[in-house]
Amino acid sequence: MFDFESFTLDWYKELFQDTRLLIIVLNTLVIALLSSLISTIIGVLGAIAIYQVKKRQTKNTLLSLNNVLIVSPDVIIGASFLILFTMAGLKLGFYSVLLSHVAFCIPIVVLMVLPKLMEMSPTLIDAARDLGANRLNVLTKVILPFITPGIFAGFFMALTYSLDDFAVTFFVTGNGFTTLSVEIYSLARRGISLNINALSTLLFLFTIILVVIYYFITQRNNKAQIGGIRK
Amino acid sequence: MENKFTRNIYMVPYALWIALFVIAPILLVLYYSFFDIEGNLSLINYQKFFTPVYLKMTLSSFWYAFLITLISLIVAYPTAYLLTKTKHKQLWLLLIIVPSWINLLLKAYAFLGIFGTYGITNSFLEVIGIGSQQILFTDFSFIFVSVYIFIPFMILPIFNSLNELNPTLIDAANDLGASKWTTFRRVIFPLTIDGVKSGCQVVFIPALSLFMLTRLIAGNRVITLGTAIEQHFLVTQDWGMGSTIAVFLIIIMFLFMSFTGTRKRGI
Fold this sequence. Notes:
- The structure holds 2 protein chains of 2 kinds.
- Chain A is mainly alpha-helical.
- Chain A has one domain: MetI-like fold (Orthogonal Bundle).
- Helix content of chain A is 83%, strand content 0%.
- Chain A has 10 helices and no strands.
- Chain B has 2 domains: 1-32; 46-259, MetI-like (MetI-like fold, Orthogonal Bundle), CATH 1.10.3720.10.
- In chain B, helix 7 (139-164) packs antiparallel against helix 10, helix 8 packs antiparallel against helix 9 (180-191) and helix 12 runs antiparallel to helix 13 (239-259).
- By secondary structure, chain B is mostly helical.
- In chain B, 33% of the residues are buried.
- Chain B: The chain crosses the membrane at residues 12-34, 62-84, 91-120, 140-159, 202-219, 239-259.
């Protein structure tokens, strides 16, 4: 690394020939996509549930419970999940990592979706009911289309959180299964090697792409809002 | 009647999540803190926590977290202030936030290269004649990298509160003859104290529980509460003691949060 001679793509070549690393990258992507998908579904249901709660106190309790996993440090989340999975007899590996990622992504999705729901006028639902829509129709034809931008924002947030997570995964990953950040950690502890640099560059680019997508989604939301006001 | 039924259907998975992954883990941590390493029910962990070894560790952890929070505040406040004065503030803000989207490990890893024995910093020090120094694995490198990592989280809330500040208030203070310093002390700072508070919250608690940086950057010289928990859970397998430290960390977290005022009241 410190004897610079010329530019080379050798490290990228080495990276793509390392099948073990590629499997880890795939694992990470599968975990991130699955966990953000599941957490988006549960989170949206949860947000609707919170929205429908009428009592102020119950609502606040639910919201503070929702925020517990956001404010508590990763180490505590990781350690307590480790205890939980061991008590439940779940073998540490793919499923424990997936479950914990789903668990800490749900509150983020709820926080992204809830403001959208609050914006929605309750008369919309009443109107739909008056016009004879059943419960399922109200959900699929009225509520979900209205909060779609929030759902997408929540999904992408969950995706980045899941991709980024190191601490929680580190606790619940067990022996056989690793994700990228855990792998980078164990490589970095051994010192610097240039294929991590190549890998970092790729990860960086991937994150930037995600951020740009996220940015455009929120941008479009804002525009849609302004348009809505104009009407 | 029907309405209640629908609500329950929506509520089921979410309530299940709250019960399983929010309440149960905290209770389990509390439960485990009453077991010693052999699995007997005892209060030995709590006794151990109040021995000088653990108290010293807690204090030093506090000290580091305090330093990190203070330095990030000192750097972040003027930066946020300047940001509100720039022309393209959203763009500048975005540029400052981008690093926070990059994986924490990659940033730590980058500093391994920058601060390393043959890294850029040392080559620079050689060129200007100071000679190479041991930078990595010192308190300095730990605090520097932590501050670097936490600064965006400090800038964001401060920027938001400064941005909401009504500029006419500053004009009014000027008109009434306040000096720049008085304006800052009496008008700007009190009105942005909420931003400062929430910034401190987002920095202090994570700084207390850092564990990966202490390994990679500080070379195990700095032991924070987070490192201690990780050590007890994954290295010495003394889950009871680890849980006890976690219980204290949770208590400290709640104390600190109630002390600095409630963050975002609901939505």
